[in-house]
Design a protein that fits this description.
two-stranded antiparallel ribbon, single chain, 434 Repressor (Amino-terminal Domain), about 5% strand, mainly alpha, 2 strands
């Protein structure tokens, strides 16, 4: 899906007029019309779109907007994983950019995000086990950071 399609899809999902959607995002209606027609959003517009999409439960679109923002910031060539969490009732949505290095970096990243996903979305037992693994990960990361 292109960014212009993603902008239109998000507005359609929210059932808002172009004016209402532009106001929500802090954009001019002309800018929004351009983003829906043939121009890709940039900078703050991408961040606002990602946030709005996450709040609306459209994490697929939020992820696309965040990926575009990472590319715009020149982070596209870094070995990054991007994760967007579904907001809990009392907790804000967050984004995490993570760099993994070494021979097993891809497997390690996959395991980390799978564990994080189980912590966020799993049943009670999965959340408990994942929480323990993430605490262990945090302790190991702090020890590694302090040793440098």
């Amino acid at each position: 899906m292109s960014l212009t399609e993603a902008v239109r899809e998000l507005r359609k999902h929210l059932s808002e007029s172009q004016q209402a959607f532009a106001t929500r995002l802090g954009l001019s209606i002309r800018a929004l019309a351009n983003y829906e027609k043939d121009r890709s959003p940039t900078g703050k517009a991408l961040a606002a779109l990602a946030h709005t999409a996450a709040e609306a439960g459209r994490h697929d679109l939020s992820y696309e907007f965040m990926r575009a923002l990472a590319r715009e910031l020149g982070l596209g060539k870094l070995k990054l994983g991007l994760f967007s969490s579904e907001p809990a009732s009392k907790n804000p949505t967050g984004y995490m950019l993570v760099t993994f290095e070494g021979r097993n970096a891809q497997d390690y990243a996959r395991a980390f995000f799978e564990t994080f996903g189980r912590y966020a979305y799993g049943n009670v037992d999965e959340k408990r086990r994942a929480g323990k693994l993430l605490q262990d990960f945090n302790s190991a990361a702090l020890q590694e950071w302090r040793s440098k």
